[in-house]
Write a structure and sequence with these properties.
- By secondary structure, the protein is mainly α.
- The chain contains 6 helices and no strands.
- The chain is globular.
- It starts with a helix and ends in a 7-residue tail after the last helix.
């Protein structure tokens, strides 16, 4: 919750958006999954623009964990009725 309170979700979303290497992308997605355990944090991630950034994150044919993390996060947004198409 402290990450959300301090507004650091925007920083993680921006990092995911700007990252070029797979390793950093994987770590950013893992951090976002770790934050997404409550509806409040998922809402904060949505407000930070995470749903569109995650949707546009390149898939990794070599790393199933990246695909799994993307799926987990997008499902959480869908479950809470947040738009994941923008």
């Amino acid at each position: 919750m402290k990450v959300v309170e301090l507004g650091s979700t925007h920083g993680l979303v921006n990092m995911l958006k700007a990252v070029k290497d797979d390793r950093t992308r994987k770590e950013a997605l893992k951090a976002l999954v770790a934050l997404s355990h409550t509806d409040i944090t998922v809402g904060s991630l949505h407000l930070a623009g995470a749903s569109s950034v995650i949707s546009s994150t390149p898939d990794s044919s070599e790393d199933a964990e990246v695909m799994g993390d993307k799926s987990i996060l997008l499902k959480k947004f869908q479950d809470l009725k947040f738009d994941t198409t923008s």
